[in-house]
Amino acid sequence: MGKRVAVVLAGCGVYDGSEIHESSAVLVHLSREGAQAEVYAPDIDQMHVVDHVKGQPTQEKRNVLVESARIARGNIKDLSKLDVKELDALIIPGGFGVAKNLSTWATQGKNCVISKVVEDVLKAFHAAKKPIGLCCISPVLAAKIFPGCELTVGHDTECEKWPYAKTAETMKELGCKHVNKHVTEIHVDVKNKLVTTSAFMCNAPIHDIYDGIGKMVKEVVRLA
């Protein structure tokens, strides 16, 4: 029996939910490592819905659990039902849904509030000394909850390759240690059992993002 890994999603689509390629990469790499993915999402409304052609918000309303079920091929559970005792590790892919639906980072930055069910799950895995994998923007959740932890969201100097580098500076203001890493690399906070990689925080070829997520998943499964 392989390790049982909770994968927490935040909707379906980069601008208002989970980043689909990152989520898929996590699931593929978990399968390759012989682990069993168990997908969860909170049963809440999205902050808003974004037209992914125009990049503009619409008047539509969508539910995070219902949208996330698209990525999970329907095999998904309400995050409030997660029991940390039955699981070996936790992974949260990126996408703006992390900053809009799982937290208010998109609008409030370091002063954000994290959804209570998401915060409770992160704290439960951390207290149980079970590994947590985070990629793209999702390390900000750990930055907010675990002061002094070590994380990467890529590089801390903004340029064409790293358009979201200011995130690293904001995380440092929360008292974290940010470690610069290339997109195909990971950082492991051994003390807190946090494994992070930058994914689409980097303007990189999709296969590099896929490979970086693969290293993150492999290390999470190893630590479990």
Automatic annotation (TrEMBL):
Which CDD domains does its entry note?
Answer: GATase1_ES1 (cd03133)
Which organism's genome codes for this protein? Answer: Strigops habroptila
Tell me which domain of life the UniProt entry assigns to the organism this sequence originates from: Eukaryota
Q: What is this protein called?
A: Glutamine amidotransferase-like class 1 domain-containing protein 3A, mitochondrial
Taxonomic lineage from the root: Eukaryota, Metazoa, Chordata, Craniata, Vertebrata
* Coiled-coil zones: none
| Gene3D superfamilies on file | 3.40.50.880
